[in-house]
Amino acid sequence: MIEPIYYPYSLKFSIGAIVLMIIFLLMLLSNVIAAHNIAAWVIFCVLGIAFGFMIVLLVVKRLIPALKGDIALSLDQQGISDYIRDVSIGWKDIKEISLVRGRSASTLRIDLKWESDYGSQIAIPLRWIKGKDQEIYETVLCYFEEESIDKIE
Prior knowledge:
The chain is of the alpha+beta class and 153 residues long. It is built from 3 helices and 7 strands.
């Protein structure tokens, strides 16, 4: 029997995403100021509102949970729980687990044995989870293999 493992939200990635959005907004502002055009200000206001809304969402959904140390991903005897998207998957329902590498972060792809409300594949983005992508993947794989062996015996 393996002890449960809990992975918190990534503070580093949350702050990075917010800072990047602010930098883009400031770059846009500098171009608008240089343009001396009313239409540019209208476009800036629309995009500024959209960026502001996205920054607020990032703060509420990612930064605050990261600062509080909330759990983003947990592994236990029953299965894997993704608290970012509020999805829980039992080990018995999983056919295969793979790691899809991306430029900034990887995604944990879980193929299910059957079609669920989420489809036959569930993707868990690891960018919002604190830890190294490869280590998280290896730990999830270890749990999956351990629980699969226990069910067979």
